[in-house]
Each structure stands twice: as structure tokens, then as C-alpha cells.
């Protein structure tokens, strides 16, 4: 197989199973896939050392093997016993607590986060890895001078993927993860512990809470960041309050939002323009698919906002 790293990265990051199978299928030669090669394939995916320590949810693992078996059968390839054994073990597993982990191989580092597939769970969107957060990592890696040796505060940190990647790959002086939901804050702390991040702290931050906002005066971060914070127009005014307070403190801010072809971003820009003291600019970005081996047909478009940068 020519693209072993790609297959591993796709699997660990829980890419669409069809993508993984396409990559496997493209490497099948006329001789098919020997039993030895099939065992090797398991070690690249479900039996990879990272996948064993931090497995994807049971549903994802069992579906992957089910689809893999179907692919091999369609190619008239004799299926290795090891694949059947692993598949039957999974479908017989009725464990009550099924934690889901997603791992990303970025610049030689493994970053693992506990997350969920549900877009909204327990009343919050913070338990899911969003595309804008991944794109922010790509931006940060190509503009490291904006983050190196800086005290950074992230609004709406979600599962913590963006901040953990910046902390591990770029080396800021200190990183503050924030969110308003206690469940999300606990999840961030677990993910920080998984990745052994240092020089960081998790803080509660409800944007419209005056006491929480005072942390900006105390911390005075060099940079405030955030991704996909304005998915709902109702929260724009609260975010603007934080931006205006940060602006009075002369803090730099970088936000990256997904263009979902609604008028939310235009409303956000209108809100920014309501404060004549704000100096901001916007740049349109496309998804960096190479960083995450994501070659889907979906063309995500993002708006990158720089304020006082």
C-alpha cells in the first residue's frame, strides 16, 4: 500500500468511512489483498496503537469493519480470520459507556480529543469538533508569529482541539480555554490531560456576565481567538460586548467563522461597524484539506476577522 499514512490519518480522525475504503480500494492490485496485508491494514486502523488507547465509538469501529468486509467480498478476496474476529468481538460488545475519541496526526504530533458526533448534545454545541476550529489550526501554523510567546484566551473553546493544537505545535506563553457550559469545561480539562498540555488553564466565561468579562482586565491576554462563535444571530450582541471591552483594553483579536450562506456574518459585520473605534479586516479562506487529509467534495469557505492585529 502506497498511502499508509493517509489511511491511518483518515481512520484516526474518523473521516467518512467511504473515504477510507476508497483509499484502500485504490491500493488493491490484481492479486487482491493477502491475509498478511489485511492484518497490516488492521494495524493501520482499528488496531493502531493510538486507536487502541483512544478508540472511536463502537458504532464507528463496527461499521468500518462491516464495510471493509463488504468491500473485500465484492472484490472476491478471501477475508482474513483476524478481521472476522475483531468484527464479532465489536458487535458482541454491549458496554454501557461508549466514549468517542478522535485523533489527528499534525506535523508529527498526535492530538486526541474526546468528542461526540451529535451536533447539539445536552443543550450545547461545544462537544463537537467543528470545521472552523480545524481551519484555525491551519491558519495558526502558517502564521506562527502571531501566536508564539503570546498569552492567548480562546472564546468558546468547545472540545479544546484548536487550543491544544496551538499549545503543542506553536508554544504560546500561556493559553486560556473558556466556555460557559460546565460540561464543556470538564471535557476541555479531560482533553488537556490526555494531551499533557502545560501552561494552560480552563475558565468559565459567560459573555454577558459582567463578572466573567472582568477576567479580560485581569489576564490582559495578548490575543483573543475564537472559531464559529456566531452560528446564531441572537448571540452577536453578547459577543460584541466582549469585543468592545477587549478593544478598550487594546487587545488583538482573531476570529474565524464558517460561511454558511446565511445573513449571520453580515449581521456580525454590521455590529462591528457600529463601533467606529474598531479597526478590523476580513479575509476569505478555503478549507486546508491537506492538513487533515480531508479530500471531501465539500468546499468550506471561511471568514477570518482580524481586530487590532
From TrEMBL:
Family stated for the protein in its record: Belongs to the class I-like SAM-binding methyltransferase superfamily. EEF2KMT family.
The keyword Cell inner membrane belongs to this UniProt entry's keyword annotation: no
GO molecular function: transferase activity
UniProt gene name: 107365612
Name this polypeptide is given: FAM86 N-terminal domain-containing protein
Pfam families: FAM86 (PF14904), Methyltransf_16 (PF10294)
Highest taxon, organism lineage: Eukaryota
SUPFAM superfamilies hit by this protein: S-adenosyl-L-methionine-dependent methyltransferases
One GO CC term on file: protein-containing complex
Entries under PANTHER family matching the protein: HEPATOCELLULAR CARCINOMA-ASSOCIATED ANTIGEN, PROTEIN-LYSINE N-METHYLTRANSFERASE EEF2KMT
Domain FAM86 N-terminal, residue spans: 23-89
Keywords: Transferase
